[in-house]
Amino acid sequence: MMKYRYYFLFALCLFSVSSCDLTKEPLDFLDAPAYYDTAEDLESNLAAVYDKLGHRDVYGQWMLYRMGLEADEGYYARTTPAFGPQVYDFTSSDADIFRHWTALYTGIGRANILLANIDSNPEIDQSVRDRVRGETLFLRGYYYFLLVQYYGGVPLVLEPTSDVNDIHKPRASAPEVYAQILKDMETAEGLVDDIQTLGFGGRVNKSAVRGILARVCLHMAGNPVNDKSKYEQARFWAKKVIDDTDAAHALNPNFSQVFINYAQDIYDIHESIWEVEFRGHGEDAWTEEGGVGYVNGPATTNADIGNTINGVRTTAKLYTAYKEGDLRRDWTIADFTYVNATGAKTFATSTARRDVYTRNSAKYRREYEILLPKRGSVTPQNFALLRFSDVLLMFAEADYEANGGPSPEAIEAVNRVRRRAWSTGIKSVTITNGGSGYTAAPTVTFEGGGGSGAKATATVLGGQVTGVVFDRDAVTGHARGAGYTSAPTITFTGAGTGAMADVEIYKKEEAELNELEIGDFRKTIQDERLRELAFETLRKTDLIRWGIFVFNMKRVGQEILADIPDAHFIRQYNNISDKHLLWPIPATEMSVNRALTQNPKW
């Protein structure tokens, strides 16, 4: 874990009395330079700025399941609370909306104080001060990025609050906020360390800054700012990540392993560029635990697996977006339920649309955690903020929009993501001769073809082999094996004689874009982001910047009405209106800062 996490308790004590956000009138101010005398002081204060990323009201819990950010890919699976942003039924007095605003402005306030005092002692090595400055600027920019996406234009506070009368600040426009975000992040890009120097993705690094700058520019190019010139800048920043030969970013060959790594504190800086770090289980002095896996993993009360509350389930839209052979589906969406008493898995047998809605989000699985004992409501799992696959898809989108069509480079970027997701196992088994005399199911064996791991059970009827059913695999859902470059030989041994079958394997080229997908490249990108990045808190803001949020939500509501007319969760789709493109400015904040104005229709 990040060494500067150990400075957190001191920094928290410092900032509990010395930092201000827009929700509180300052009561006291310390002689701040006394707390910036050493490089260790700077690190402890920087840790406090980072801390808000993992706060319960940001990525620690609420954003993962209670803020409605999954949009059309999933829905809030619990019945309480009955009102809130998760069901699009709330007011400007909603506590979650207020706490999220407060957490982000607290992070900004901490960043402002650190930036104002970072050069208090010029004896501290300049390279240390510059690196801390870069990370702090980026984090301030990132907190403003979250604010402007969810609330629209917000007050720009860029200096420490030093006067009780200095809290009445009007909202800057969204373009003005974005301009400040770009300024902070672009400055940071030249100051922070390379990811290969750090060796882990839990700290702000050049690749993270560049990748998030690509994301910021895509949002500026879309609704509501609509500055189309930013597509070219998004392309520029994404390509810098892709072309960085020293960082050597690449996709992990195994999609599911990316998320197993987060559960086990394994860093893969080639794929995972920036992540929120959590550690501990509440039983040590330095715990910084979160709720990843607890609030958004497959439900169970089994203590060995790790308790989860299943806060999010999938929609049929997401499930049917995956093609057969796409291994992401059964990792992203649970094809099983846990037996609470034993922790064993009961696999789903129905793929009917009505039944799909009962499936849990499953990227973050507590069964893979290795830190013991497992606590009921806290987890040590890290949460991805930027993965290389996202960078590839951002590049493809920006390149397409900037050039007015899909270039070979953009097409290949998407194909890289899709090929990684594709099975290299057995696609189908066709019985060519059922044989005779089978009194029981024969043993099925697959040999050759360059792969391994396929396991299946034969079905028998009237003394003949009629087919095979693949065994279940805990990760991919079906034990179809992997690594096959040619069709293996299948044999049936025992209990009869003469059964034969042909085997067909999945091929990587099947994953690649076809002519129809290339011809409708914008929709292809939108769908690919749905498949690759589901339940990573990006979907709602993607739909908003594309200008299709309300339309997509209403359409999913219509699908649910057709599939399950009495579904309780249909209300969160039926409740949608244009006002939900932004959250309201919190009522409490409006009462404190009298210079604020409210968002439309709130």
Count of DSSP-assigned helices: 22
- Low-pLDDT stretches are 1-31
Distance separating the two termini: 42 Å
* Residue fraction in strands: 5-15%
* Shape, principal axes of CA atoms: globular
Strand segment count: 14
Q: How confident overall, as mean pLDDT?
A: 93
Helix content: 25-40%
Strand order of the largest sheet: 1-3
Gyration radius, to the nearest Å? 26 Å
Largest sheet: 2 strands, antiparallel
Structural class by sheet pairing and helices: alpha+beta
Main attributes?
single chain; 602 residues; alpha+beta; two-stranded antiparallel sheet; 14 strands; 39% helix; globular; disordered N terminus
Characterization of this structure:
By secondary structure, the chain is α+β, with helices and mostly antiparallel strands. It is built from 22 helices and 14 strands. β10 and β11 form a beta hairpin. The radius of gyration is 26 Å and the shape is globular. The chain starts with 7 loop residues before the first helix and ends in a 10-residue tail after the last helix.
